[in-house]
Amino acid sequence: MWISEYWEDFELLEAENGYKLEKWKTIRLLRPDPQVVWKNNNIAKFKNSIDAKYIRSVKGGGEWQTYKKLPEHWIINYRDLKFKVRPTGFKHTGLFPEQAVNWDFAREQIKRADREVNVLNLFAYTGGATVACVKEGAAVCHLDASKSIISWAKENAALNKLPENKVRYIVDDAYKFVMREIKRGKTYDGIIMDPPSYGRGPNGELWKIEDSIFDLIDTAAQLLSDKPLFFIVNTYTTGLSNTVMENVLNLTVKKRFGGTVSIDEIGFKTTNSGLYLPCGATARWNS
């Protein structure tokens, strides 16, 4: 499992009985997680220090049950990066801290290139990878289907004082945008994508990862430059193992450019019980 070694403002305290207890700077949140199928009774000892718990509704969605007054939002740090986080109505906080291992990987590839680097970040969410890449000197095209999420990403960029000319923000369907970029003759040295299992684009375009991921990766690979650096694919879809993503990258990116494909789960070790919680699967290609 790939685990970030540099978090100071985030900690996975415990995971059991369908929930994970996380510490976001000083705030402790208890959130449901479908991977946590094991049972235990360790979270009970943290009961009096939990700030909020997300309760799922039988009708779908859910809400936060707060035990202490929460700030509207707060800032957490990762190495030289800063991010705005807040509890949302969909149990998320606006950041996936396990992705820090992929931010670091991308930064390493950009640093070793020692030249101007362009990166395409698809399904870019609030811009964790975007901020990391620009901090290392790259220019990034940041795409997401949600205008509100793009606004959040811009806040994170401003928080990190990123040069405005280093990030190009796009609200669009990923596949349609990739096709247009190919027609325009655009190329990128690195591509990052973190697609959802299911979703819709800004104009109602249907996305199902098992039906669409191969074609998207195969098409996006046409945007890689003559000297590409990396291609990162992350998925939270439990039905698709990292070996599946390895096969896809082997048949698309590696087939065209050679290089190396590596795969692993990403996640965290609980500090209380020492158990490991997988939070996703990542496949990486690098030259």
Protein topology:
Layout: E1 10-16, E2 19-24, E3 27-32, E4 52-56, E5 62-66, E6 74-78, E7 81-85, H1 100-113, E8 118-122, H2 128-135, E9 139-144, H3 147-159, E10 167-171, H4 174-183, E11 190-193, E12 198-200, E13 206-208, H5 209-220, E14 230-235, H6 242-257, E15 260-269, E16 276-286
Parallel strand pairs: 3-4, 8-9, 8-11, 9-10, 11-14
Antiparallel strand pairs: 1-2, 2-3, 4-5, 6-7, 12-13, 14-16, 15-16
Q: Helices and strands, in N-to-C order?
A: EEEEEEEHEHEHEHEEEHEHEE
Unreliable runs: none
Q: Mean of the pLDDT scores?
A: 95
Radius of gyration: 19 Å
Q: What share of residues is helical?
A: 25-40%
The rounded distance between the terminal residues' Cα atoms is 22 Å
Structural class, from secondary structure content?
alpha/beta
Shape: globular
- DSSP strand count: 16
Enumerate how many helices there are, as a single number. 6
Q: What amount of the residues lies in strands? A: 25-35%
Main sheet attributes: strand count, strand direction, barrel closure: 7 strands, mixed
Instruction: Please list the strands of the largest sheet in the order they lie side by side.
Output: 10-9-8-11-14-16-15
